Amino acid sequence: MAHHGWGGRPPASDAEARQRIVDATARCVDRHGAAKTTLTDVANELGVTRQTVYRHFDRITDIIGEVAAQGAESFVDRLIAHLRGIGDPAEAVVEGMVFCVRTIPTEPRLSLLLQLTDSDAFGRGATTADVIAYGAQMLRRYPVDWEAAGVGADDLHGLAEIIMRLLTSLLQHPADPPRDEARLRALLTRWLAPALSAGPGRAVRPG
């Protein structure tokens, strides 16, 4: 690990170096936007060479992806806190989607998810197996007894895929004129909630 630059405070470990690169990238993105942030910008922000950054990340998109991922972790914690006390599966899913549509576009690190196109949650990779599995893991944190609602472990992956696809569309192609929260909630309650309101044993399953 290089001991030059770094504002006179070289990192004590590779893990610290990577985190400082991620933090510097976040600052660059705040100033320039994700599309205009380059690896040179990040290196200059840290006072190191491009090669030093390359020792830890192969591409600028990899660093921006990590910025987005760390923002997503904090976001999910806040989402789960927002849903506390909502045990009905239909209400929890609808309210969770309303929260996502309201929150993601207003926060820089979350908005990165909309701009990434290689492998991240709200770009073209939104239906990949890894992202769907992440969505299912997130659903397991909801304050919902999924088994009692007739939604098994395999069903959660299907539900996660539907949510990711729908959320991608709502975020990338908002309604014109825009819907307020009440109208979005009404739309989702009318067309999405019924699939989760059937109760145990009544869900339609593929043959």
UniProtKB/TrEMBL annotation:
- A Pfam family annotated for this chain is TetR_N
- InterPro entries reported in the protein's UniProt record: Homeodomain-like_sf, HTH-type_TetR-like_transc_reg, HTH_TetR
Entry superkingdom: Bacteria
UniProt keywords, alphabetically:
DNA-binding
DNA-binding residues:
38-57
Q: Does the keyword DNA-binding apply?
A: yes
User: Which residues belong to any copy of the HTH tetR-type domain?
Assistant: 15-75
The protein in question is named: TetR/AcrR family transcriptional regulator
* Organism lineage: Bacteria, Bacillati, Actinomycetota, Actinomycetes, Streptosporangiales
